[in-house]
Amino acid sequence: MAPLPLLSAEQRRGLIAATICTSAVGTIMGLIWPLLALILDHRGAGSELIGLSSASQAIGSLIGPLVALPAMRRLGVVKCAAGCISGILLALLLLKLWDSVHAWFVIRFSLGTAASMLFSCTQTWVNQIVPDQIRGRVIGIFGLLWSAGFGAGPLIIRFSGIEGWAPFLVAMLLVGIAGLPLFTTAEKSSTASDPLYLATVLPILRLGAVVMAASIFQGLVDSIIDSFLPIYGLRHGMGQGTAVFLLVVLQSGILVAQFPVGWAADRVSRPSLLKAMTALGVAASLSLPLAVGYTPLLWLDLFLLGFAVGGVWTVGLIIAGQIFSGSLLAAALALKGILYGVGSISGPSVTGVAFAHWGQIALPAILAGICGLFLLLQLAYRSRPLAAQNPG
Known about the structure:
It is a single chain. The protein is an all-alpha fold. The protein has a single domain, classed as Growth Hormone, Chain: A, CATH 1.20.1250.20. The protein is built from 14 helices and no strands. It has helices at residues 9-21, 23-42, 47-75, 77-97, 101-129, 135-160, 166-179, 198-207, 209-235, 240-265, 270-291, 295-323, 327-358, 362-380. The radius of gyration is 19 Å and the shape is globular.
């Protein structure tokens, strides 16, 4: 049951382009949030300002999927993705040229918009191409490249530091390379999708409530971890390099999770697998304060937390592709992106305030609470069968 023989040559080229292109999104998310948080912390900015700066990028993530729907209808996914790559490169250049915390609010908004648009394009593209019997494995590869880009962000910081042009230039190089496969596909047709009117949103929420909640969960956890895990390390007396390396360890867990979780999703109950990943996230979050004083134990705990977060993302996207198809698929994935943005906006802002008032315990407490609430929601929906197709 190898995936490639089931696809045409053009579909294979499109799948390769989409999966590689999405690594650009991971690179931006994995680099910019911790890089700018560390730069602002180095300048003496408070945790509230760091949280608000991160939230400006998250607001763009909220807007991006709304813009992506008409852009894909008008231009098609390839031209839309190429435009997003160009926008990301311009924003990275401006972040360094216009070195002002106030200007960063506007630039990060634009960057978040372009990155989330690109993610909407690539998710829709992949789910439209791949048949359900191999969806888990293909999404696992898709997630592998996304998380590889994500993991590249902290590694860039670790080796380049936060001063000068180096981290920005490396990020631009990686994003540019990720966009090159777009030149190998000849897709020219527009992508049909239902607009996000109330009549469209309601059936999406009815069929995929847990999947949509998973997007909020992901936005919360990703933005909180990227913005505050290095700060958490600094507050525990770690050096800057070690604090950033915490993200590398966590991202390695996300990276490792992708293919095995995708493989398992083709063979076991997908809702049960989603619950298992969430429960692992609860346990790893609760263990963080106990593990922080012992380096090998801390690395293991962060790896497991990353595995859980990566697993939730992979299974959630697989289930979304299983439930929705046709014109409703793009609308559903756009709504997922919007809800991810809602979580991304809320996460850094709330955590920044909590950090200021609760201190170091804020990060593990908030992460455990988010994972626990998401698990309770899944248990509340456990008796509802998973829909296999669109209504009507």
